[in-house]
Amino acid sequence: MSEVTALPLMVFFGAMSFLLVRSRDVKWWQATLIFLFGIYAALTPVVWTVTGIVQWLIDRVTA
Fold first, then answer.
1. Rg (CA), the chain
2. pLDDT in tens, 22-61
3. Neighbour count for residue 38 (Cβ, 10 Å)
4. Do 17 and 34 contact (CB within 8 A), yes or no?
5. How far apart are CA 33 and CA 13, in angstroms?
């Protein structure tokens, strides 16, 4: 995944994380969004594994 697609994903996950934490009612799938935001924001070595999984899911949904 290139920086062109990673930046909008990070902005999306950041906005969703902010809104979900603000609502104080976080469900499991919302916690997953917050986790993904943390991965993209931190750019840890595991980001490439998570990016591959996210890309695979996007490909499956859009195919």
1. 12
2. 877 777 777 777 777 777 667 666 677 777 888 888 888 8
3. 15
4. yes
5. 6
